[in-house]
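Q: I'm building a small set of examples for a reading group on sequence design. Run inverse folding on the following structure and report the sequence directly after it, with nothing in between.
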């Protein structure tokens, strides 16, 4: 089982490791993939649409990163299997998995959510994260150890108007994180999550562009919208030797939004 290096300067290095990042063509996934290449990992980048994915991979390769782009839909079993097979054939190892691809197919109250939308949001945000983790575990990590990062959300912690179906999947993802960490820790596999607040990506554009979203951001302790690169440092901490003794946790990266309500209530 890996331990933190005695010299802290080595602790964020991923030299010699291989990673698979889903949803890596833009937004938070691309920022994490970029950080992993900068830390020295070979990175397999996955997303559904090949053109955007290949452009993102070309950008990281031009900056010196070792990357492979594989178009895949994580909600399909055959795509998940092909992804892990391609990653292992290319890198001969798979030390890191980042389950970042996410969906939010419906806006509105739970009273009106349709069964198809409920199934889809669970398929991408929860089911795919479990079964991709299972594939990586069986194919490599159970024998060699590894680190898995699930991209959750601040919405996992608080009911969030109009996206509560999505928020239920992220709360379940946090518990999946703890359950997998508990099962796989003895094999040297750490499983953690990060929970972003509002981040400026196409995924949440309707939220951060709205007057309500702007008010929400401006009243946060750090009163600005998050940027995808704001998640990269937290991801690297949890995936690198610097995080060797951290497992089963979800690190909230939200500019302090979650403490806002406690602050407004005051002490006691
Ligand atoms: N932005 C926020 O404010 C925010 C806040 C909290 C949590 N998050 C979480 O952060 C994660 C990333 O979101 P983001 O904001 O970076 O979104 P984004 O900019 O829209 O990027 C989403 C990425 O996921 C890919 N993707 C979507 N569905 C996929 C599927 N079924 N299979 C494979 N790839 C898929 C997309 O590419 P293709 O379209 O080509 O597949 C794209 O690369 C999500 O899990 C989201 O829930 C975001």
């Amino acid at each position: 089982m890996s331990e933190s290096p005695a010299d802290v300067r080595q602790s964020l290095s991923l030299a010699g490791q291989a990673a698979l990042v889903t949803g890596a063509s833009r937004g938070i996934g691309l920022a994490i993939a970029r950080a992993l290449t900068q830390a020295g990992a070979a990175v397999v980048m996955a997303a559904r649409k090949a053109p955007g994915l290949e452009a993102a991979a070309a950008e990281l390769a031009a900056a010196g990163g070792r990357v492979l782009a594989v178009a895949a839909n994580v909600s399909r079993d055959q795509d998940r299997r092909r992804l892990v097979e391609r990653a292992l054939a290319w890198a001969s190892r798979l030390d890191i998995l980042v389950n970042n691809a996410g969906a939010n197919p419906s806006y509105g109250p739970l009273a009106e959510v349709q069964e198809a939308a409920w199934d889809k949001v669970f398929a991408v945000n929860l089911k795919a994260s479990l079964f991709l983790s299972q594939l990586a575990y069986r194919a490599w990590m159970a024998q060699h150890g590894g680190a898995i990062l699930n991209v959750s959300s601040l919405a996992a912690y608080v009911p969030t108007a109009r996206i509560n179906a999505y928020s239920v999947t992220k709360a379940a993802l946090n518990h999946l994180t703890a359950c997998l960490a508990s099962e796989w820790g003895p094999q040297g596999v750490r499983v953690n999550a990060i929970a972003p607040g509002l981040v400026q990506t196409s995924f949440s554009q309707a939220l951060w562009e709205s007057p309500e979203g702007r008010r929400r951001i401006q009243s946060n302790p750090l009163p600005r919208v998050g940027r995808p690169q704001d998640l990269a440092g937290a991801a690297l901490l949890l995936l690198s030797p610097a995080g060797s003794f951290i497992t089963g946790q979800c690190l909230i990266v939200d500019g302090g939004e979650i403490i806002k309500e406690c602050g407004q209530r005051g002490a006691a």
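The chain has a mean pLDDT of 95.
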